[in-house]
Design a protein that fits this description.
alpha+beta, two-stranded antiparallel ribbon, 7 helices, 5 strands, 43% helix, binds iron/sulfur cluster
Length: 171
């Protein structure tokens, strides 16, 4: 594990484990403008090496602005809370992490690159409707190939794509 020196980390973001994968596929789409604005901020920090992440099972800093978060439970659909918790546990197991582990965003991305295949995405993400868009697969492939993420440089990409928020949620 990367050793974190005092002063090198100036942010700590509580992030549920499966959202580490979702961040790879983020393209400025989301469930509401507030959700997208918040996820934009977190995605920027995800690529900042000075960011410290606390990896958890359960609602996190992304869920905080999600309209489906009801009193700290994911209420997106029937059984969604249990389903996303299970996804978190499966991602944690693949990454060799335990709940509440803190690590740098660089190390989190390195572990994803090392541990995840596109087939793993299909298994863990199940029937998530975002999977068929291909963005998450593309994001993982780019990470694994060492390319810069498609949303970088982030602000200019988003400024061209924020309009898509009006078309979500997908049905
Ligand atoms: S397919 Fe869904 S759960 Fe899987 S990484 Fe993408 S957005 Fe997240
Ligand atoms: S859909 Fe559920 S898991 Fe996803 S951000 Fe919203 S509350 Fe969190």
């Amino acid at each position: 594990m990367v050793r974190l020196t005092e002063g090198s980390i100036h942010r700590c973001i509580r992030i549920r484990a499966h959202h580490l994968l979702c961040l790879l596929g983020f393209r400025g789409w989301g469930y509401s403008k507030q959700f997208v604005d918040n996820m934009q901020r977190i995605a920027q920090k995800f690529y900042d090496p000075a960011t410290l992440l606390e990896v958890v099972v359960g609602c996190d800093a992304i869920c905080d602005f999600c309209p489906y978060n009801k009193a700290g439970e994911c209420c997106r659909g029937e059984g969604s809370s249990q389903k996303v918790d299970q996804q978190d546990l499966e991602v944690m197991a693949k990454l060799g992490l335990k709940p509440e582990t803190r690590l740098s965003s660089d190390e989190a991305r390195a572990r994803i690159k090392e541990s995840f295949s596109v087939q793993d995405l299909s298994c863990i993400c199940g029937d998530c409707e975002w999977l068929n868009l291909g963005y998450c697969t593309e994001g993982l492939n780019r990470l694994k190939s060492g390319e810069s993420h498609p949303i970088s440089p982030y602000p200019s990409y988003l400024s061209n794509h924020m309009g898509y928020t009006e078309r979500i949620p997908i049905s």
